Amino acid sequence: MEPEGTYLVWLDFRELGLPDKELSDLLIHKARLWLNAGPMFGAGGEGFQRINIGCPAAILQKALERLKKAFH
Prior knowledge:
Layout: E1 8-12, H1 20-29, E2 36-37, E3 48-52, H2 57-70
Antiparallel strand pairs: 1-3, 2-3
C-alpha cells in the first residue's frame, strides 16, 4: 500500500471472523500489542485495528513478528 502521509495503518482482521472484543484480547494477551480497535472510530470499523508505525524499524519489526506468531 502507498502511504498517504501518516504513520497510522489500518490492519484488516475480518477474515478471522472474530468478535472485536475477542480480537483485541488476543492482540493484547497473546501478541502483547495494544492497537486501536476499529469500532472506536465509528461504524464500519469492525474487524479492523489501527497500528502506529511511527517508531524505530527494530521496534516495528518486533511488533510485526509478535503479531505473526500470535496467529500461527
